[in-house]
Amino acid sequence: MVSISIEKIYKKDHNGNEVLITDENQVMEETNRHFQTVAGSVNRKKPIQGRWKEQYKPQPHINENIYSGIMDAPSYDEWLDIIRQLSNGKATGPSGVSNEMLKHLSDDCNHILYYLICKIIELGYLPKQWKEATVFPIAKPKPFNCELSNSRPITLLETTRKALISLLNRRLAIILKDNNILKANQFAGLPKQSTFEPIRIMNEVIQDSIDNNNELWILSQDMGKAYDPEIDKQQLGYNISCISKSVVQEEGVLNQQNVSIMAYMDDTQWITDEKSKLEKMLYIADTFYRLNDIQINKEKSELMMRSTTEKHQE
């Protein structure tokens, strides 16, 4: 594993010039400020206009009462089941309380913790200590070069807080699945789902393009920092280009294609048969990203294009 040492950092001054900071106190102050603000803020209202206005209105096919029980206090057995399913070997938050400790509490301590959880849900207030976290910067697959933006922060939260969130997430996931809220657009975020289905669909799309000699454009996008404070100042847009290679396919010669597909929760695959259609799709997607302060990591975007070929006649 690559390690980084934050003994000195580069920072841009008011004129946009890079300044090397070596003073220990300044380095700590700037590092703290960077990781406090790197994700920006979502606590601001935005006018929803255009094509997304209807999408953000309450949907008539969804009964709002299905969510009424999410914030109910759990039963004692439900809470203990959440604790039992916590993963072992996970890093702890600032208090140092691990999942293993929660699993081995005495009966009295379990009841005290259960009472605390019920009160938190009833009052809708998290303890101040649970809002603190430990942030560890880890290296990205690129040289660090004293640039904090070349590191990825890992935030370690209190394990008891994560257990409470797991309880709410489990309830929400069951509601979404039982009521088919996400329709067919979500493959791996709900119980008993996986990435197998989108991988199969992708393989069949590629195979169909090969079998029928159709043009195919596939762009894989990866979400970068969500809620980036600079995204509104950027001019988003795409100028699609692709390096093409001519392949001669002769009669009687086996043409083998090896396709490797990896799927992640924050990946998006844009599929179409024309470059112009792909550019239009990306323009629409960018309006959604700007609305929700989502930044696409264009360094990780990958474009795969298949052009039509002509067979040589003997």
From TrEMBL:
The protein's name: Reverse transcriptase domain-containing protein
